[in-house]
């Protein structure tokens, strides 16, 4: 079992920056991939960035967002720069295990608006 707790969501102006954090607890040593998805109203969750054996970014995130992981703190971060109104969404932390189990955090709201 893995528990994921996100923080850092906020209201930010277009062009601004925000850093999301996700603290993992439980059987974290078995985590295969950990990262971030987001969900727009009425839509399915979509990949933002993940890290495991390699790092993956959504096309919309490349060059603006950066994922990093602090193993000692059991925390994964998403640094978001040059935010756009279309980045407004609920951001979810995600982890999966080698056996295929998936875990989600409760989500944190990011709103980009003037």
Got a strand count?
11
Estimate the mean pLDDT confidence. 96
First-residue to last-residue Cα separation:
40 Å
Structural class: mainly beta
What is the CA-based Rg, rounded?
13 Å
Q: Into which percentage range does the β-strand content fall?
A: over 45%
Unreliable sequence segments: none
Number of helices, counting only DSSP H or I runs of 4 residues or more = 0
Describe the global form: globular
Task: Report on the biggest sheet.
Answer: 7 strands, mixed
Explain what the structure shows.
- It is a single chain.
- It contains no helices and 11 strands.
- Strands 2, 4, 5, 6, 9, 10 and 11 form a 7-stranded mixed β-sheet that branches. A 4-stranded antiparallel β-sheet has the order 1-3-8-7, with no helix packed on it.
- The chain has strands spanning 2-7, 11-12, 18-26, 33-39, 46-51, 55-57, 65-70, 75-80, 89-96, 102-104, 108-112.
- The protein has 114 residues and is mainly beta.
- The mean pLDDT is 96.
């Amino acid at each position: 079992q893995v528990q994921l707790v996100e923080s850092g969501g906020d209201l930010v102006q277009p062009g601004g920056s925000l850093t999301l954090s996700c603290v993992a607890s439980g059987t974290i040593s078995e985590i295969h991939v950990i990262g971030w998805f987001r969900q727009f109203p009425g839509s399915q969750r979509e990949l933002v960035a993940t890290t495991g054996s390699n790092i993956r970014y959504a096309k919309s995130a490349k060059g603006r967002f950066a994922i990093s992981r602090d193993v000692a703190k059991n925390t994964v971060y998403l640094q978001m720069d040059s935010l756009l109104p279309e980045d407004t969404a609920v951001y979810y932390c995600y982890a999966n295990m080698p056996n295929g189990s998936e875990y989600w955090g409760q989500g944190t709201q990011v709103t980009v608006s003037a």
